[in-house]
Amino acid sequence: KQEVTQIPAALSVPEGENLVLNCSFTDSAIYNLQWFRQDPGKGLTSLLLIQSSQREQTSGRLNASLDKSSGRSTLYIAASQPGDSATYLCAVTAGGTSYGKLTFGQGTILTVHP
Amino acid sequence: DVKVTQSSRYLVKRTGEKVFLECVQDMDHENMFWYRQDPGLGLRLIYFSYDVKMKEKGDIPEGYSVSREKKERFSLILESASTNQTSMYLCASSLWTSSYEQYFGPGTRLTVT
């Protein structure tokens, strides 16, 4: 059974720092990996999706990498801002006829203080 | 932009009541999903549907059922609500394409008393 782990569970940084969030998964037979952001009490917003054949994706100050063989992904946030404070979730889509079912990590709670 | 809406943001029901949570997407997505989110347990898949009238159990289907009579609408039903079903419920949808990127609704915070 696929298991997804995110480290650290919580992170507090001063504004302007570059930071890295980590995600690992136990079964490398994934179809893709998604990073989401969740604000308190709200739904999930998709940030980046990396297909299993890709190594990284970038969107603005965000860069996500994928090393499928080692079962790892990182989300890099450059020049962090207080508005980046949220919970960041990583999720993998199983390969095969899974209809795109996601398995989620527990998330990293990020606080960026001014 | 993809839009996924859920019928209620907050809902309070009594133990034993039958509860309907509705989810509607406007992008003609084939796949729809229901998750629940609990502190310390993360997001867990309850049920999903890959076509009208088609459904499959997720990881925690006990105590729930679903209905998909139209492509845009996916309902989660709690046949007899219990206090351990107090949770945040999230609906998502995705296309049957090469990416399966999922789009989420705003969530329904359900409290069963």
State the shape of chain A.
globular
Structural category of chain A:
mainly beta
Largest interface: A-B, 23 and 27 residues
Contiguous low-pLDDT stretches of chain B (5 residues minimum) are none
State the order of secondary-structure elements of chain A, H for helix, E for strand: EEEEEEEEEEE
The DSSP helix count of chain B reads: 0
Overall morphology of chain B: globular
Fraction of helical residues of chain A: under 10%
How many strands, what sense, and barrel or not for the largest sheet of chain B? 7 strands, mixed
The portion of residues forming beta strands of chain A comes to: over 45%
Number of helices of chain A: 0
Question: Structural class, judged by helices and strands of chain B?
Answer: mainly beta
Helix content of chain B: under 10%
Q: Determine the mean pLDDT of chain B.
A: 93
Q: What fraction of the residues of chain B are assigned to beta strands by DSSP?
A: over 45%
**Over all CA atoms, what is the radius of gyration of chain A?**
14 Å
Which spans of chain A have pLDDT < 50 for at least 5 consecutive residues?
Answer: none
Overall mean pLDDT of chain A: 93
How large, in whole angstroms, is the Cα Rg of chain B? 13 Å
Using DSSP, what is the number of strands of chain A? Answer: 11
Oligomeric state of the chains in view: heterodimer
